[in-house]
Write a sequence for this structure.
């Protein structure tokens, strides 16, 4: 039974929500293998083409928490349909684009669809039976990882056999179908939080996020210790500090700062950042390792299809691990699968650093990494949902999704910098020591995530939930 009589069966809603989540997850990485073709086709350089990724990331960073908050205020299904339509429209703009400006404009519009994940989480919490909430959130969370890995391979296949335009057409078609299905068959959530849009808070958050993310995206070109990189990061942190101060004094803020600063919520977000770092570092390393020529002494000389087959077993296991994490969380608490998932991810990355000599070894260790990521991603989303009242689900999960994307951005840039530092002069190919070092760094970050996850205060989420739920009930 659903918690509201006359509502559709949750399985149907979950499938529809999964389609929308997959469209957004694919867009995060699908373009990466085609950046070389894009640079040539759009007649630009590495600095110009970086805006194709940076524009998307910045827009998503701003839109994700804002969409979650608006969903709490005006209806999560309504905002989800709107987000999917904006994402789809952006995909069409980029697909039709023949200049750098047009493609970047389309990518920015795609990024403004960033509220898809927190809105899906909110609908699940509002609509699904209690016993199905954790597993369903686990499934949606797993799709984030699956889509990220599949996007790298699918983007390579499309770029090799078709053109970059088809990468965007795939996004447009999937988002349009998901929007229609959501409008037709997913019910509107009954929970509303009357209020107003916190425009000053939104603008400060946008600037505070944009500056450091821009610095991270350009750090490999500018240098991680350059004045431009450090200056933008410092400026962004300062603006975010001002944002926190302003939000504390705002009557109806964009984000409820005391809730975000509660130790269980704060630590869960920190673990999310670190696991996102390790996940995307791994996603980018495996295709490069697999497609490196055999003459390097470590590469397998595979094409995009072959690299995809190496990653396929891991993607399938991630799809299984997400719901399992939800079941474990329901029975033992979500702290257990989060800690276990981060630890498994770290162990798999460490094993990959020490043994990547054969396709079997890479496949096997990637399965371990993927199981860990699937367990952790599902648990972190469930911990956030458990910690906040229904009225704050959208904004809290929006911040968590944002933190995960920031971690992914940092992880991909750091691993790229490590590989670039090991490139043999004149060959353009990284040395094996570069891959080993990159995997070791990702393993260390994931291991730190496991330690922090184990330190999340036991039972604190129930305390937070009881404390903030009372005024919400009183309002009703």
């Amino acid at each position: 039974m659903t918690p509201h009589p006359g509502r559709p069966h949750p399985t149907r809603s979950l499938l529809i929500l999964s389609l929308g989540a997959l469209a957004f997850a694919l867009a995060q990485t699908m373009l990466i293998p085609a950046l070389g073709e894009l640079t040539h086709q759009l007649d630009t350089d590495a600095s110009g083409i970086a805006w194709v990724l940076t524009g998307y990331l910045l827009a998503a960073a701003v839109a994700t928490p804002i969409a979650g908050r608006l969903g709490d205020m005006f209806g999560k299904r309504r905002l989800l349909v709107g987000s999917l339509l904006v994402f789809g429209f952006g995909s069409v703009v980029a697909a039709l684009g023949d200049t750098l400006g047009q493609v970047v404009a389309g990518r920015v519009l795609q990024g403004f669809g960033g509220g898809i994940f927190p809105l899906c989480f909110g609908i699940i919490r509002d609509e699904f039976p209690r016993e199905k909430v954790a597993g369903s959130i686990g499934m949606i969370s797993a799709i984030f990882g699956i889509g990220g890995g599949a996007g790298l391979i699918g983007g390579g296949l499309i770029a090799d056999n078709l053109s970059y335009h088809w990468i965007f057409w795939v996004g447009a078609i999937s988002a349009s179908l998901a929007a229609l299905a959501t409008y037709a068959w997913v019910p509107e959530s009954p929970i509303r939080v009357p209020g107003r849009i916190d425009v000053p808070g939104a603008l400060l958050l946008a600037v505070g996020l944009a500056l450091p993310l821009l610095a991270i995206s350009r750090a490999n070109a500018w240098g991680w210790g350059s004045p431009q990189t450090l200056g933008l990061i410092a400026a962004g942190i300062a603006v975010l500090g001002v944002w926190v101060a302003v939000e504390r004094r705002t009557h109806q803020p964009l984000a409820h700062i005391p809730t975000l600063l509660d130790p269980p919520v704060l630590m869960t977000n920190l673990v999310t950042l670190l696991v996102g770092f390790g996940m995307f570092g791994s996603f980018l390393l495996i295709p490069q390792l697999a497609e490196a020529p055999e003459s390097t002494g470590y590469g397998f000389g595979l094409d995009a299809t072959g690299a995809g087959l190496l990653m396929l077993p891991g993607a399938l296991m991630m799809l299984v691990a997400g719901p399992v994490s939800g079941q474990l969380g329901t029975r033992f608490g979500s702290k257990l699968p989060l800690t276990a998932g981060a630890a498994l991810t770290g162990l798999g990355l460490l094993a990959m650093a020490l043994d990547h000599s054969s396709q079997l070894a890479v496949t096997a260790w990637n399965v371990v990494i993927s199981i860990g990521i699937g367990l952790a991603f599902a648990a972190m989303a469930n911990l956030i949902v458990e910690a906040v009242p229904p009225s704050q689900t959208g904004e809290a999960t929006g911040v968590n999704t944002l933190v995960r994307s920031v971690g992914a951005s940092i992880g991909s840039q750091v691993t790229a910098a490590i590989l670039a530092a090991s490139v043999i002069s004149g060959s353009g190919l990284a040395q094996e020591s570069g891959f080993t070092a990159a995997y070791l760094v990702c393993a260390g970050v994931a291991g730190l995530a496991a330690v922090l996850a184990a330190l999340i205060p036991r039972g604190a989420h129930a305390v937070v939930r009881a404390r903030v739920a009372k005024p919400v009930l009183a309002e009703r």
